[in-house]
Specification:
The protein is mainly α. It is built from 14 helices and no strands. The protein is elongated, with a radius of gyration of 26 Å.
């Protein structure tokens, strides 16, 4: 058998060795932990990923901005909102697949994400939140880009491949619907839960989700296209293999073969970079919109304070005049 047949399809990025090296190093980069004095990673001060910490800060920052604009809630309610957005995708996919909740298996996930929100909310002088606001939109774009790198990798390796490889041998591992559903929901589950249950509102309640009327959110669309893109570019699905009796299977496979082939590592990297670019760009525009609303709110509060002070001053003058008249 020829060497090319042994190796399988040739990657479209085979002539770019630097990209392949980066793709191979991508998972290690995302899993890199805070380290101690030697700096070689062997003496981690905390068994917590750097990107995980930044992701927790990103979600805490977005939740805090939301409640800052719409009215603060009791701290416990805000914390629950934070954890819902943090683990919502994992919660829904674990329920759908009948697996143990990932956040229950970890000793660090709840403390890290909960601690990030506490730091965002109760540090003296609101130092963390104020710092991120003062450095906006740079802080918004940076944190969103980190989120995109994690999301692009998560929906592929922890989404599609969870079903396709980890659960291999079970009927669900052969389901294209399951691959797409798990990848999409894993990357957008927190927002989906909030849309149904209004977790981020002052009063919770089940309702028809707004996506029914307004269309899918950016998170849902991005996770869906990242999932489908990964399946197509890795040529993971074949109609001939999974639906051999379907008359159009050969024709459909011929169409799928037109998609440039990437290795799984390369496809994960491309997915992460595209998600990072999309979320970073969206964060830039959202930061500008939020800043304008923030300035308007501050001006309204200042005018109200001045009006209240003016009314109080007028009352004092009127009281003095009445006193003089009585004398």
């Amino acid at each position: 058998m020829a060497d090319s047949e042994m190796k399988g399809p040739v990657s479209a990025l085979e002539s770019f060795p630097q990209v392949q090296k980066l793709a191979e190093a991508y998972p290690s980069l995302l899993n890199k932990q805070w380290v101690g004095g030697s700096g070689d990673g062997s003496d981690a001060l905390l068994p917590i990923g750097i990107f995980t910490t930044l992701h927790a800060i990103r979600i805490a920052y977005e939740v805090r901005k939301s409640v800052q604009a719409n009215g603060r809630r009791p701290l416990l309610q805000e914390l629950f909102t934070m954890l819902t957005f943090s683990f919502g995708g994992a919660i829904l996919t674990a329920l759908a697949l009948g697996r143990v909740q990932p956040w229950l298996q970890s000793n660090t996930m709840v403390p890290v994400y909960g601690g990030a929100y506490l730091a965002m909310s109760i540090l003296p002088g609101d130092i963390l939140f104020r710092f991120l606001r003062r450095t906006s939109p740079i802080s918004d774009v940076f944190l969103a880009s980190v989120d995109g790198l994690l999301r692009g990798y998560g929906v592929t390796a922890a989404g599609v491949d969870l079903v396709r490889k980890t659960m291999k041998g079970q009927p669900v591992s052969e389901s294209l619907i399951a691959w797409i559903f798990v990848g999409t929901v894993l990357g957008s589950g927190g927002g989906i839960i909030d849309d149904f249950l209004q977790i981020s509102r002052a009063s919770w309640g089940f309702r028809t989700p707004s996506m029914v009327f307004n269309g899918f959110s950016l998170d849902v669309k991005l996770s869906f296209f990242a999932t489908v893109g990964y399946i197509l570019t890795t040529h993971a699905w074949s109609f001939t293999a999974h639906a051999p009796g379907f008359p159009l299977s050969p024709a459909l496979d011929s169409i799928l073969s037109l998609v440039p082939h990437l290795s799984e590592e390369e496809a994960r990297l491309i997915s992460g970079l595209l998600c990072s670019a999309a979320l970073g760009t969206a964060a830039h525009f959202q930061a500008r919109t939020y800043a304008v609303a923030e300035r308007h709110a501050a001006e309204s509060a200042r005018r109200k304070k001045d009006d209240d002070a003016g009314v109080e001053s007028d009352g004092e003058v009127t009281g003095e005049k009445n006193g003089d008249s009585a004398n």
